[in-house]
Amino acid sequence: MPKIIEPAxxxxxxxxxxxxxxGSGPGGLAAALAAARAGAxxxxxxxxxxxxxxxTQVGVEGFAWYRHEHTVDCEGIGIExxxxxxxxxxxxxxxxxxxxxxDAEMFKWVADTLVExxxxxxxxxxxxxxxxxxxxxxxxxxxxxxxxxxxxxAKRVIDATGDADIAARAGAxxxxxxxxxxxxxxxxxxxxxxxxxxxxxxxxxDPQTYADWGGNGEWDYETTGKEDAMFSPFLRxxxxxxxxxxxxxxxxxxxxxxxxxxxxxxxxxxLNLVHMPAIDGTNPDDLTAGEIRGRREAIYAMExxxxxxxxxxxxxxxxxxxxxxIRDTRKIDALYNLTGEDVxxxxxxxxxxxxxxxxxxxxxxxxxxTTGRYWHVPYRALVPKRVQNLLVAGRSxxxxxxxxxxxxxxxxxxxxxxxxxxxxxxSIQRGESFAELDVAAVRAxxxxxxxxxx
Length: 454
Ligand SMILES: Cc1cc2nc3c(=O)[nH]c(=O)nc-3n(C[C@H](O)[C@H](O)[C@H](O)COP(=O)(O)OP(=O)(O)OC[C@H]3O[C@@H](n4cnc5c(N)ncnc54)[C@H](O)[C@@H]3O)c2cc1C
Description:
The protein is α+β, with helices and mostly antiparallel strands. It has helices at residues 26-37, 54-58, 77-87, 106-117, 165-170, 196-205, 237-244, 284-308, 340-344, 401-407, 410-430, 439-448; strands spanning 13-22, 42-45, 91-93, 100-102, 121-123, 127-134, 137-145, 148-159, 174-176, 189-192, 234-235, 257-258, 261-262, 268-271, 316-320, 330-332, 352-357, 360-362, 365-367, 374-378, 390-392. Strand 3 and strand 4 (100-102) form a beta hairpin. Helix 1 runs parallel beside helix 11 (410-430), helix 7 packs across helix 8 (284-308) and helix 11 packs across helix 12. The structure holds flavin-adenine dinucleotide. Flavin-adenine dinucleotide binds at residues 22-28, 45-48, 53-54, 57-58, 60, 62, 65, 127-128, 160-163, 165, 186, 188, 272, 325-327, 394-395, 408-410, 413.
C-alpha cells in the first residue's frame, strides 16, 4: 500500500482532568459515574452525539433479559440504569424476564441526567484517535472532531471504546477472533404503526421458546436443557414464509431473531433480526459494507413482517440504529484473562470488583441464570499489559470466547465500568499504579457505592 508522511504539528491541550473515560456505553458511562462519585474530576468523551453506547446508538434495549426468579444479580450502577430509566419513563417491562427493557431514545436523556448530576465533564462528538504516551505511561488522548485535532490530558485513562482502540494504539497486547468466527454484526431497527393487540394475540397463539432458536446459523445454540421450554420473543416463521413466497432472497435464511417491546402507541422496537457474519468492526470498509447490507436486509425483514406477522400489516420503519451493532472485536491481554471455565464454574477471586450471573449468550451457548449461580469479575481482567495508567472496561476486557459471551452483556459491562472508575479514583488518591493497586481499598469504595463484590 502506498504511504504518505503526516507532518508533525502543535496540538492545543483543550482540557485536563483526573480520570478520562473514552467511550460512553454501559461500561464507560458506569466508569465515569463511579470515578466522579469516588471524588475524581472526571471527563466522559464519545465520538457520537449522545452517551449510552450500544443502548442509544445501536438501539440495544434488553439490558437484563437474563433475569429470572432465582437469578442472583449484581448490584450497583447497572441496576441504577434500569431503575432510573423506569423512574424517568424510559423503560417498559421486558417480555421474557423480570427486567425492564430500556427505551433507547429516552435513555439518551437518562444518561445526560446522570452525567450532569455527577458533575462529569461531557465531551461529545470527539473520536479518540491516539494515546499521548510518556514512555509506557498514558497521559491523555488526542481527539479528532470538527475542531480538528485536540489533546485531552488525564492522570488516568479508561478505555471503554468496546474495541480497545486506545489500549491497542498505546501498544498494549490485544487479540482478535478471526473474522469468520466473530459474533455476527447487526443493523437494528424499530417499526411504528403496529397493532399491539393483534401482535400480542399472535405471539400468545404460537408462543416461541429458546428451543425454537435452533437450526439456523447465528441462532444455533447449546443450552443446559432447562432453557429449552422457556418463552422467547423469537420470530422465524414469518421469514420462513417470506422465503417460501419468494419475498426474501434464498440466501437470506439468516433473517430471524428477537423483538423487544411493543408499545400501546404501536412501536415495535429492538428488532434484532439481521445477522451478518465476517464483519470486523475495526475495519471501516467492513463497517460500510455492513451498514448498507444490513439496511437492505432489514427492509426485507419488514416486508416479511408486514405480510406474515399479524398486527404488522400497516407498520412502517420507525428508525434504524444510529450505527451498525458490533458484538466482537479486540480483547486486551490482561493481567488475568477470564475463561469459559470461570463463568461456567462460578469462579471466585480475591480481587473481585463485582459479580455477574451465569448468563452466557454467544459462541454457540445460551445459558440463563435460573439457578442462582454467579461468577466473580476479577480486577486484573481490566488491567492491560505493557501500558501504565490505563484500564479497560466493557466488552474488551481480557478473556476467551465463552467468557466474552458472558462479560459482553451490558449489565456486566456496567460492573467492569464501575470497578474501573473506582479503581482509577483510588489509584490517584493513593498514588499507586494500576498493577500495584491496593484492591482492598477499591473493594471498600465499591461496597460504599452499593456494588456487590462477593
Ligand atoms: C445487535 C446487538 C444486540 C445486542 N443485544 C444485547 C442484549 O440484548 N443484551 C445485552 O446485555 N447485550 C447485548 N449486546 C451486547 C452489548 O450491547 C455490548 O456488548 C455492550 O454494549 C458493550 O458495552 P461497552 O460499554 O463495552 O461498549 P459500547 O456499548 O459499544 O460503547 C462504546 C462507546 O464508545 C464510543 N467509542 C468507540 N470508539 C471510540 C473512540 N475511538 N473515541 C471515542 N468514542 C468511541 C462509541 O461511540 C460508544 O458510545 C448486543 C450487541 C449488539 C451489537
